[in-house]
Task: structure prediction
Amino acid sequence: MLEIEIDGTKLTVPNGTTVIEAARSIGTHIPHFCYHKKLSIAANCRMCLVQVEKAPKPLPACATPVNDGMKVFTHSDMAVKAQQGVMEFLLINHPLDCPICDQGGECQLQDLAVGYGASSSRYEEEKRVVPNKDLGPLISTDMTRCIHCTRCVRFTEEVAGMQEIGMAGRGEHSEIMSFIGMTVDSEISGNVIDLCPVGALTSKPFRYTARTWELSRRKSVSPHDGLGSNLVVQVKSDRVMRVLPLENEAINECWIADRDRFSYEALNSEQRLTKPMLKQGGQWIETDWQTALEYVGNGLKSISNEFGAQSLAVLATPHSSVEELFLLNKLSTALGAGAASFGTRYADARLAPAQQGASWLGQPIADIAAAKAVLLIGSTVRKEQPLLAQRLRQAVKRGLKLSLINPMDDELFTTVSNKLIVRPDQLVEALAGVVKAAAELKQQAVPAELANAVVSDAARAIAEQLLAATANEGDRAALLLGNLAAHSPRAAEIASLAAQLAELTGATLGWMSEAANTVGAQVLGLQASNALTQSCKAVLLFNTELEFDSHDAQAALAVAKQAEMVVAFSAFKHGALDYADVLLPITPFSETAGSFINMEGKLQAFNGVVKPLGDSRPGWKVLRVLGNLLGLEGFDFDNAEAVRKAALPQGEAGIAAKLSNAVQGVSIQLQAPSAGLVRLGEVPIYQADALVRRAPSLQKTRDAVAPQVGLSAATAQQLGVQAGERVQVSQGDAHASFQVALDAGLADGVVRLAVAHPDTVVLGAMFAPIQLTRA
Amino acid sequence: MTVYVKGVVFDGVDFDDPNSWNIDAYIQRGGYAALKKIIAEGISQDAIIAELKTSSLRGRGGAGFPTGLKWSFMPRSFPGQKYLVCNTDEGEPGTFKDLDIIVNNPHALIEGMIIGGYAMGISVGYNYIHGEVFAAYERFEAALEEARRAGFLGDKILGSDFSFQLHAHHGYGAYICGEETALLESLEGKKGQPRFKPPFPASFGLYGKPTTINNTETFASVPYIIREGGQKFLELGKPNNGGTKLFSVSGHVNRPGNFEIPLGTPFSELLEMAGGMRGGKKLKAVIPGGSSAPVLPGHIMMETTMDYDAIAKAGSMLGSGAVIVMDETVCMVKALRRLSYFYYEESCGQCTPCREGTGWLYRVVDRIERGLGRPEDLELLESVGKNIAGRTICALGDAAVMPVQGMLKHFRDEFLHHIEHKKCIVPGY
Result:
């Protein structure tokens, strides 16, 4: 600990503290632009110059480490003159176009210019003009305003993992730009908008729509991935205008992913369903709530009487709130249909019965970064969990060893120590090899089921690394399962082997939950299995779009089309127009109170930030009325808090008691690799849920381009096809044609073709056999 | 044109012999004797550094930092890789001495670097050579190959346990890459921008490893010091200013060129060696240490000796030893305009005061030169200069300001005349 003095105040700070941090700890603000606590020190803006006793020149507070006995003066004549001098330089070439700048009112340069700038300029020469850059559909540029702090440059390199922005040119001609002809394509790129201290980088979708002082700020929680990023939703005239991060170091730090930031565009989409609709005589008509709900009530009763309650399937997406899922599950159970399902993307019926609790991350989110080793199993982690991938990237820099068992070798922009890249139908065998290696290394008996497992060098290296990581008391390792594991037709075997590996190595097992409320759905008793069967006669779809949210879109649609009645609770008019009989307009997360339980088991409640659009109503209210209409007990709630209380009577403690990644009673049956082609069908990042699908700006990003067929070079050669060629792919009777793209990260025999995309919904299951012929 | 009087760097070099640069000629005039002596006698690292301290050799790149002291900063017991880097970037306007060394006596530099590697326990070195010189670069590569073949460079030098690899690296011509940390960035393949210091290269240098960087002339002086002794070197010059120094004399003299003379030689003698003033014109001013050094009026220079301390006392700096001589026909406003334009164009753009301030300085000087100056402009120049100097990441900011300050200090009248009369005080301009 070092004793120092700042502006006469004595304080004690740890070794290695910089002057700016020390000052902040006692509430002294030192003006700055380039400094950011999450980025490396650049010391280039020079705004934070302060006087340090015995130093002949003013020193940058951001880059000057504290010495014992140091005396710092942040407001002395020397310090203030230096700061004023820098401010003058920053302003001479700045356009001072605040009245037409989107950053106006929330601009660090504007704020500090009030404190350190002069009222008129001594600079009377020509000002610099810098051409704008095309950074893609999300980030708008006004580069003449740029003050070259390089925060955006450092963000892309250090946080997003790949330097997509750089400073080209020299001196006054320096320009911040992307690589020539390239845009900024990171899945967390929007954070540079927040980082930019001036109006050089602003939000393209938000551009010129509102001024910051017109907006009210309301807290909310992201409805996308399982992280549960905290949001500030900004509202004007009862309309969501933009979304910014709410800092929460334990969850999203100061970042949000692009889908958290830009999916709000869908809230005001023309596809919003604003009135209940009934299909009569093949025609959709708008109706009132009373008529629609009576129609649903009567339909449910008559189908139940005719075909039995088991003919009813109740499906929800895990993007729905605790309150909605609780009442939906209650309704399903009360109607005799059993628990509702959130598992339309799941394919292994053995998984749900084997799981001993709600599967979760197994540890707090922040703890992952403190692990010594992490093994990722079946995850396109950058696309599934953009911010968790970012945390792992930072942790690798601090020494975490990251390994993978995956069906593809996508760029993670970090160092991967060991990897097993296999066909999606061989994840079990790959994992079995690691389990066997760990058992051998620990000199324990190899389970009989795994006797024939093949231990590759990489498998042994992964096992060694996990054991080494947990060798010392207090050191931790983690196994993290992703969506590709969860959606696998062999998910139960993967879960069981992962649990065995965790047991053998002392690593913590966790699931990186797919959606905002995947953990909540399980805690509430919904089933992680696909409830659609050919015997379904009535289907209730809650936020579910069968064509996008199913493991096998065609099979699901076939069930829906033969059913007597399909009811879609949805915020949007979607594909159900083809197969549903009733559309009930429920509100998205922004128009209702609710709560989600994130991957670490944390319950986060939020309030509606705007009024429901049109005649749409919060889902929990609709379910309440429907329950009462059907004469069911226990559907009387006054508000969302009351529903939450009934859903989670023991609150946080009750949730914690239900979390478990234990798996029982799954037998492992190792299979030889099949000779045929197998599909690798992941859900694209901007097709994952109803909101992102309808956010126009996200749909213009490179992550949203039309799917191509990915093949290894060897497989392409074997099939006699070339990159860029169109090929016909078939699953069962379904066909579609796509362009071939070579993907060096694929095992041979793998046909990578995304699911959940309008171009691919005509095809079949995610990880099923697939045929490919030249078109 | 190169002339040496009491040569250290060019000791024994015959500038009329096209083969004088090669290894045979170098060995014949006593080259590699210092290295052989070190290896044969097993001279300790400490003894070498002590000899350098005795010699009072100071860095010849511009800053004049004592070389022995710099070498002693290197953590000799550091367990990982360390690097030795030679700065042959030589971008300072007026300076052309290092080029002459790698063309005419490259082995002196190579031997000096090998001795440096030995003294600091370093096994890998790089010579970063300025971007726009091609034949010189090839000459240095040829010399390296000779040294390798002769067993002076590479694994197990002269049968000892000491190994040293030396590589040449061609820069791209940016002035800023002569700044040692920008040079390291450039050497690593990145954009040449100075690093914030501390940490200094001795602890965090090339690829983050401890690194010592010296100028070409500094390294090329080392073999002589080891061979002849530090005391002898010191006595060539004067106390605290040991040895000889290369001066690149340019401008309005009859015989511009490099002159290797003992430190402490009167400027008047150097001017004499350079053939005196061209056309018999009157000496007006001298920039004594490269374009970043403040200009000094001729009469002050004529009373000054050429060494670090005397020039500092006169109000400028010895710098890289580039002596720019100006006669009475020079318009100082125009001269400053050209100098300021250089710094404006060569600022790396990283930090605010230099990026924004160098352009401001240039534009104001340019305006004065074009007859559009205002009476308050001189105070403005001084004030902008003050806001740049000492507030930047590297010394380029200071370098841009010093010519302005020097000119305004000694030739303020000329600037005022320009502003008042919208034309130059010097006839013909």
Q: What stands out?
A: The first strand of chain A starts at residue 2 and ends at 6. Chain A has five domains: 2-92, 128-265, 277-350+518-658, 365-512, 678-774.
